[in-house]
Amino acid sequence: MAPCPPTIGGFSVLPVTIPPLPSFPRSVLHYLYVRRNAPKIPAVDDSRRLFLTNVPVDATEVHLRIVFATLVGVGRFESVTFEEDRRESRTDAQPAQAARLSAHSKKRKRENEEAERAAEEAAACLPSTWTRPLRKSGSTAVVMLADEKSVDQVLKAIAKVHKSKKYPSWGDVDKFGAGKAPPPLGSNWLKAHNRLSYPDKDTLQTSIDAFSVLFAKKEQEAAEIAKRMRNEPDEDGFVTVTRGGRNAPASKNEAEEAKRKMIEKDEKKKEELTDFYRFQMREKKKEEQAELLKQFEEDRKKVWAMREKRGKFVPKS
Of 34, 169, 14, 138, whose CA–CA distance to 3 is shortest? Predict the structure, then answer.
């Protein structure tokens, strides 16, 4: 196979030696493509990040830590975020909605409630059945380094690797005191998966109990929100009378949306304390609309007067 050039399409090419395995007893080269991280939405630490693509399927933080230690020494590599981790964080996070829902409470209390809810949801989940994840072929990762200088050093070291032909070795976990090696793959990995797929009775019962408690808590919150929403008057002061039907929103999203509307309505009430009665608020809105129309008519008359004064006004026949 012909050697890969040092750069391709703005990426620095980093050859990595894959040592022989029992399933494939021959050493091969794998090419990582590296460039400075430049996302569509810039972040504060982008100058310290490197974007990697064509990450090996068995990649772990330990593997990449060793590769970067081989290039620029230990102490430069801080962390790595793989493509799957970034996708999960975007799915789970709802920053705008969470901020609106928590704006009415104190910060410390809000943090405690969020921590408790996260602990409850974690307890309600069964443990992972895979001891080690496998990446998609050609997946990406973002590596965080110690500083911006480390980024420059890594890119320069990649250029030197092509001249020296001393490529980093993939999976050399004993080098540089990397610590505990990642869980093995192969038959041991599949055996561990088969064992974890059937958890013991105590672990399963604990997860079921935690899930039931969390589900009942969410149902109670949804019912309270629905009850309050039925008693909340609309902007004109009317309360919708309902009979029968369900007592709570159909899903978590509906409950969260109802809660958000309630919080927004409460905040609006606080701003409108000066006009206590509904009819006063309606009259005030009418006065504001009339004032806007009056101002619009005055501005239009001024524009016509200026055009007539300049002699550019041509009346329509």
Answer: 14
